[in-house]
Amino acid sequence: MHAHRQAIATPTARRAHVRVGQHHTAANAEHEDASGREFAWTQTDFSRVQALIYQRAGINLHDGKHAMVYSRLSRRLRETGHTSFHDYLGWLEGSDGPEWQEFINALTTNLTAFFREQHHFEVLTQLLRTRPNGPWNIWCSAASTGEEPYSIVMTALEALAPRAPFKLAASDIDSNVLAKAARGVYRQDGLKGLSQSQLQRFFLRGKGDNAGMARVRPELRQPIDFLSVNLIRDDWPFREPFDVIFCRNVMIYFDEPTQRRVLERMHRVLKPGGMLFVGHAENFSDSRDLFALRGKTVYERVG
Ligand SMILES: C[S@@+](CC[C@H](N)C(=O)[O-])C[C@H]1O[C@@H](n2cnc3c(N)ncnc32)[C@H](O)[C@@H]1O
């Protein structure tokens, strides 16, 4: 975008492009607004995006996110051939097609890491050792690119008796990150938090064209069922209740009424006494009728 902007920065430059016959660049220049942006972008457009992503994903985009939203959605405009946000959003709202998934994917924030918030994995180890022969049924409900669910499975394979029944549902709303999670291929420099023995036991190092990459071994992949679940919708596909739910660093994007509704549903799909792990900045003490705090950002189902 910057290169494009430099090339067409002035009206003179625009005319020059037309003269030398670069119609494509000149045509795009028509859509550069007074601020130098490629696409016209108004407060009304931003408010519309805020309303749509809130309805679809519960994500509460605050006003400071203008630049982020513009840059992430500009790509969608280019790929779908729209020349203004007004047109793109009108087209999106008028359809029920696959662009909705792309719109959501563009606006989620997927930051994650292996063994993020290490203390949770120590608590999980202690918990799993109380019943080393299983069975265990765990849900990782905002799995992003997979580092969190694979960290949970590594912890389980290390804590439980060999072949103890253990299964993990790993879900997210974003189809791109779920596909990456299911592939289980990571850059080796993203695996720094893992011990040597974990690297050897659970990963295969890439060679040749795949040098610098590592793939999870089948032992790590096999207990996981990857699936798309929107936390704010009332259509969760689970039949069996969970012993443990990880719901970390996602509710932070939701407002309080949405958090409460999600917590009520999580309460329903957790077994009595089941544990809920949440992110470091998330606090659900207002819902103490549903969950009691049992450690740093670890809750137990009440009732
Ligand atoms: C910041 S990441 C957190 C990843 C991981 N749980 C962690 O703590 O490292 C937040 C994830 O929540 C997902 N997400 C956002 N809204 C969601 C929704 N309504 N339903 C399910 N997942 C959602 C995003 O796609 C993203 O992958």
UniProtKB/TrEMBL annotation:
Its EC number is 2.1.1.80. One of its GO terms (biological process) is methylation. Keywords: Methyltransferase, S-adenosyl-L-methionine, Transferase. Pfam families: CheR (PF01739), CheR_N (PF03705). It is an enzyme of class 2 (transferase). PROSITE patterns: CHER. Residues 34-303 form the CheR-type methyltransferase domain. It catalyses: L-glutamyl-[protein] + S-adenosyl-L-methionine = [protein]-L-glutamate 5-O-methyl ester + S-adenosyl-L-homocysteine. Residues 1-36 are annotated as: Disordered. This is Chemotaxis protein methyltransferase. It comes from Diaphorobacter limosus. The lineage of its organism: Bacteria, Pseudomonadati, Pseudomonadota, Betaproteobacteria, Burkholderiales.
